[in-house]
Specification:
The chain is about 40% helix and about 10% strand. By secondary structure, the chain is an alpha/beta fold.
């Protein structure tokens, strides 16, 4: 059976994750640490899809599948799925590795179906899927961001999966909270995909901060500013950050910092149109603090608005920065890279929440976490019942127990389906620390751009970048975001 993999764009500078509304929002967004029993990240070249991507279309025999990969289907023909889990994205990224693994399992279990994978780097995926939606030409199956759900559902582009999800044999094991970004009214439009991970973690070198006089990463920005005097004096960036893709400041910084000022009720009221506004004083204060930190202190790398999160994490890996702010997909990449290249630095990996601003009074231990993408289906498939059934079976399988078990056992991560009794003792100490930091020791808040609509975030993200350069006031940023919100949401 000929298996086709189309449109592979492997521009590493464009890959972002997960999560979530995040990029790499990998995924997600994307997504975390590697199995302790392995000395390096799972090899992408072992994945059938990755081999096909490198070699082009080729004939291959269909081997037997690991595990039970769904029921018999009556559909025979072509089915297309578009996603961003490239072979490079999956290196050290548990969510993408798991996604590719279970996708291959399903493909091999259905030899009568020619599964065409259109695989793009993350940033390119976001652009291309939006272009296809505008042309009413979405793939059969694709990854849907929460921020696009309302618009695309109202336009009739996405199939309503409510009854299929509620009748799934896995429904009792689903973490129902993850459906929220993909729900409009009473209707659900996707199976939340990839892994639940943070978009905002401070990764720091314990030894470097010890030398600067801190046993742990500072709890306040005032202390970080003091530490920057030491680091800058030694030619070291205190905290590396990259906002070159514009989304990082929103997903990986403001979503958490904003919660420190507004508390969670403000944002959920904004989502529900319950009276909150971007121009509310608490949110404007969060914008003002963001501007202050990036324009009036010497904490961050000067090129933060030019480089991406992928670039910025290299500053940390090389020792040119003492800390880095990014998402769980960045943590997994740093873990895998340092494990292979610098075990001493790997052993000194520490995790912290964003420091608390002096004038903020909410949730000092909060970090944003969620699933920023869902596997969705083109509404046009309703006209082809057998093909629709195959698409639903695919979506259900690649987000179900097979995926959840794989990422739990190999990466100590969680997905849509709950997995009982994850044995953390099988993992190294760094992985255990990050698991506990992510799921046990911190409070959680929402990722802003997992909700509302992309038309709002396009405005806010562009203005944020300008504001962080010192060329726009927080009040004007808030006013523009509110105007876009009222016009488009």
């Amino acid at each position: 059976m000929k298996k086709k993999l189309l449109g592979l764009l492997l521009s590493t500078a464009m890959i972002a994750t997960l999560l979530a509304g995040c990029g790499s929002k990998e995924e997600a967004p994307a997504s975390a640490t590697t199995d302790a029993e392995k000395t390096e990240a799972p090899k992408a070249e072992e994945d059938t899809a990755a081999s096909d991507a490198a070699e082009g279309e080729k004939e291959e025999e269909t081997p037997e599948t690991e595990g039970e990969a769904s029921e018999e289907l009556s559909f025979a023909g072509e089915l297309e799925i578009m996603h961003y889990s490239t072979s490079e994205e999956s290196e050290g990224n548990g969510g993408s590795d798991g996604f590719r693994t279970v996708l291959t399992q399903w493909d091999e279990a259905h030899p009568d179906i020619t599964l065409t994978q259109n695989v793009l780097a993350n940033a390119e995926y976001k652009t291309q899927i939006a272009t296809l939606a505008a042309a009413d030409d979405l793939p059969d199956v694709f990854l849907l961001q929460g921020m696009n759900t309302i618009d695309w559902a109202n336009q009739g582009l996405v199939y309503d999966l409510t009854e299929d999800i509620k009748s799934s044999p896995y429904y009792g094991d689903y973490n129902e909270a993850y459906f929220a970004p993909f729900t409009v009214g009473e209707s659900i439009y996707g199976y939340p995909a990839l892994t639940g991970g943070t978009c905002t973690v401070v990764i720091y070198d314990k030894a470097m901060w010890k030398e600067a006089g801190f046993d742990t990463f500072p709890a306040t920005w005032e202390e970080v500013e003091k530490a920057s005097e030491y680091f800058n004096g030694n030619g070291i960036t205190t905290v590396a950050f990259g906002n070159g893709g514009k989304w990082q400041a929103n997903s990986c910084f403001l979503s958490t910092l904003g919660n420190r000022y507004t508390g969670p009720d403000w944002f959920m009221s904004l989502v529900a149109k319950g009276g909150s506004a971007f121009t509310d004083e608490a949110f404007v204060k969060a914008l003002a603090e963001t501007q202050r930190l990036f324009t009036e202190t010497e904490i961050f790398n000067e090129d933060f608005n030019v480089v991406t999160n992928e670039d910025a994490r290299e500053y940390y890996i090389s020792g040119d920065a003492a800390a880095f702010i990014g998402g769980n997909w960045d943590e997994s990449y740093i873990w895998a890279t340092l494990k292979e290249s610098d075990e001493e630095k790997w052993n000194n990996m520490g995790f912290a929440v964003l420091p608390q601003p002096a004038d903020a009074s909410q949730a000092p231990k909060s970090q944003n976490i969620g699933l920023g993408y869902a596997v969705a289906i083109n509404a046009k498939l309703a006209e082809e019942p057998e093909k629709l059934a195959a698409a639903i079976d695919l979506a259900e399988y690649i987000t179900g127990p097979e995926f959840a078990s794989y990422v739990a056992e190999n990466y100590a991560l969680g997905g849509l389906t709950k997995v009982a009794d994850v044995d953390l003792s099988a993992f190294d100490q760094i992985t255990q620390d990050f698991y506990n930091w992510s799921y046990v020791d911190t409070e959680t808040c929402e990722i802003y751009d997992s909700y509302v609509t992309n038309a709002v975030w396009d405005v806010l993200n562009t203005d944020l970048q300008t504001m962080m350069n010192g060329d726009m006031t927080p009040e004007d940023v808030a006013a523009n975001a509110q105007k876009a919100y009222e016009a488009n949401y």
